[in-house]
Amino acid sequence: SGNETCLITLLRIAARYNYLYEIEAAYGLNLRALFSFASNTYFSNPQFTPPARKKNDPYWYEDVNILEKVHQALAIIQFKLEGQIIQRRPDFHMSDRLLLDKIDFQKNQIFLHDHWHPLSHTCFQTINVQHPYQLTDEESVIVATIRRSFQNSERLKKQMNFLLKKGSMYLIYNKQLLFHGCIPLTDEGHLLSCNIQGKGYRGKELLEQFEWHIRQSALDLEKLNDFSTDFVWYAWTGEKSPLFGKKKMTTFERYFIEDPQFYSEEKNPYYQLREHNFICAKILQDFGLDTASSHIINGHTPIKIKRGENPIKAEGLLFVIDGGLSKAYQKATGSSGYTLLYNSYGFQLVSHPTYDSVDKLFEHKKENISLKKVVEKEQERIPIRETTIGTELQAEVAALNELLKQF
């Protein structure tokens, strides 16, 4: 939708986790200018080495050097573009993330939290000391070229159109509330207000306002710096964004500061308070639902089974179905994710242990899953008329009956 910062962030993450070539091939992207620029500008840097995807990868040693350089180029461009949005949108209240102008490039250190701290593995050769957030002419051309390449990809257009047609910030289906990240809360458990263009929004209204701006940004792909397009980036990394739910994203610190105390990303109180039944009941009420027949289906934050964390929270009122499907999370979570099943009898949660290989599955000769019933007590089966589809069918029947009366 024209947000170049999000675009470059996407590619940086792809370089970081070593699937940049797959994205390039899948969408027919033109990344030649980026690769050429990175090769001529950056040097080998182990901090930016992507992981090998499999043992004995024949292309690994050939590709690692160029991927390191591309990774560095994308990171620096991202930090510059983020700074431009923060300066352009003071109402985002993210000035604490303006970091490039806090660097002493001669001494290779940064002024944070009232102290100077050393930087390591730096790659600041394209940063203008006087104007640190300004792209070089070559970087500007690269970003514009990649954006046009993305926007002209027929496959990506098809997928984005599907997302805009079917997607939403939240969904109420069969009286169940589904959302991805969080409902921002205060420390006291009240719905947190987010000021958007002079008006405060919270809870259900906040999610609807985010969705409106995301859809608005997609209406004109040539608008690059309007509020809605900038707001798409805030949705990714803003403190009060229900899709992010943290105070800050410490990407810069993780790359360049060796002290791990700077890596902390404090979560919104929602992630502690959602353990309580009355908090989840309050959220359901804000969406016009009640605890007798409704639940919250939540994702986004992988459940760490290794630490004894339970995906069923708030006395069965909330289910977290992100168990760490991504392989990058599985060492920390001890799981490959969950599948939530819902039928007329109620809920069941399928836990998927970490997956190694097809050969090991055949070796054990059994399915590598475990099934847990969420609702243990007997309950009356849910008839079709009480489901979302049943409600739609009844509305159609009523409309047809009204039509028959005309004859």
Write the layout of secondary structure elements.
Layout (H helix, E strand, L loop, with lengths): L3 H13 L3 H8 L4 H10 L18 H29 L14 E2 L4 E4 L2 E4 L18 H15 L2 H13 L3 E4 L2 E4 L14 E3 L2 E3 L1 H15 L9 H11 L13 H6 L13 H4 L3 H10 L9 E3 L13 E2 L4 E3 L9 H4 L4 E6 L2 E6 L6 H7 L5 E4 L14 H17 L3
Parallel strand pairs: 5-8, 8-10
Antiparallel strand pairs: 1-2, 2-3, 4-5, 6-7, 9-10, 11-12, 12-13
Explain how this protein is built.
By secondary structure, this protein is of the alpha+beta class. Helix content is 40%, strand content 12%. It contains 14 helices and 13 strands. It has a five-stranded mixed sheet. A three-stranded antiparallel sheet has the order 1-2-3, with no helix packed on it. Strand 2 and strand 3 form a beta hairpin. Helix 1 runs antiparallel to helix 4 and helix 7 crosses helix 8. The radius of gyration is 24 Å and the shape is globular. It starts with a helix and ends with a helix. The model has no long low-confidence stretch (mean pLDDT 90).
Q: In short, what is this structure?
A:
By secondary structure, the chain is an alpha+beta fold. The protein has 14 helices and 13 strands. Helix 1 packs antiparallel against helix 4 and helix 3 packs across helix 4.
Count of discrete alpha- or pi-helical segments spanning 4 or more residues: 14
Mean pLDDT: 90
Number of strands: 13
Q: Which range best describes the helical content: under 10%, 10-25%, 25-40%, 40-55%, 55-70% or over 70%? A: 25-40%
Structural class: alpha+beta
Main sheet attributes: strand count, strand direction, barrel closure: 5 strands, mixed
* N-to-C CA distance: 50 Å
The amount of beta strand, in percent, is 5-15%
Strand order in the largest sheet: 4-5-8-10-9
Q: In sequence order, what are the helices and strands, one letter per element?
A: HHHHEEEHHEEEEHHHHHEEEHEEHEH
The value of Rg in angstroms is 24 Å
Uncertain stretches of 5 or more adjacent residues:
none
